[in-house]
Amino acid sequence: MTQNSAFRPLRSLVVLVLLWLGATTTRAALAHPGQAELVREVARDTGKSPGELNALLDGAQKQQSILDAISRPAEAKPWKDYRPIFMTPARVEAGVAFYQAHRALLDRVAGEYGVAPQYIVAIIGVETDYGRIVGHYKVLDALVTLAFYYPPRANFFREQLKALLELPSSKLGGPLDTLLGSYAGAQGWGQFMPSSIRDFAVDEDHDGRIDLHGSADDIIASVANYFHLHGWESGAPVAARAQPDAAARPITVKDARPLWPLEQLEAWGYAPLQPFAPGRLTSLQTLDGAQGPEYWFTFQNFYVITRYNRSPLYAMAVDQLAQAIAAGVAQADAKQ
Ligand SMILES: [Ca+2]
């Protein structure tokens, strides 16, 4: 046994004690990367206590399952595989039942905001299967994970986390660290992100708070108001099939913003299958359908739906589900 080795247990103990002291006295060692700066901004903008904000964020957990989920969105599928996820007989039927159950409210909100009721129902149907699947992640965990540990969209999710921390309690629906939602931090039947709750959610039943989980009035009116404030045109079409001729000029679009009068697209070789008012602004989507390529004229209201979710597949699914629901309701009415 050498002389030095006799001192090793003591040295290890000293190191352990020093490590323990470091872990318990420096709270920065527990913070998420970027937390201190965010807390400073929120405290400055709202006057909220940095201690309380840090306690909330310290309690939030980075979750690998959230990082896994955001890396495989359904919108990566082609239209022929995406459409059947949402256009099922069960989802249409449940949409008709939801419409009938909330009919008076839907009619009133549709009149108030100028948005067709079947589109409000279809959004809720696509987002959460009519409020059945609203997400089981802690919203705070989801937004902390994506704001601090998901570089591809860190800016967007940091804004959402900041918006969440800044929401007044009347817009929160419960204590902040108990809120549940999707892996992306969206809440309620309409899956509103925190900035959308801040900017578009409404207290339709006038009880002094916004409840996107429990108040059908607040939920339905918030979706309608979202569409209304993004420029929904009352009574206008969403999308219509286009028939290209053999010489049709290929068109790629950056987003679904309607850019051309429909006559311009006709001049480029795309014929509508039904007449439209002259000068209607239009864009064109080419989708990978079950029977080959599908060409669609899309209008302002289609663009508005893409403000809810950027994917044109999403907007197309909402449009087709809305029409199927409206047809189902009309059919049920005719039987009575
Ligand atoms: Ca309310």
Description:
By secondary structure, the protein is α+β, with helices and mostly antiparallel strands. Among the domains are: 29-58, no CATH class; 67-229, no CATH class. The chain is 51% helix and 9% strand. The chain contains 15 helices and 7 strands. The chain has helices at 8-25, 35-46, 50-59, 64-70, 79-86, 89-101, 103-113, 117-128, 139-149, 154-166, 194-200, 216-229, 262-267, 300-306, 312-335, and strands spanning 137-138, 180-181, 239-244, 260-261, 270-272, 281-289, 292-298. It has a 5-stranded antiparallel sheet. The chain has a two-stranded antiparallel sheet with strand order 1-2. Helix 2 packs across helix 10, helix 5 (79-86) runs parallel beside helix 15 and helix 7 runs parallel beside helix 12 (216-229). The protein is globular. Bound molecules: calcium ion (CA).
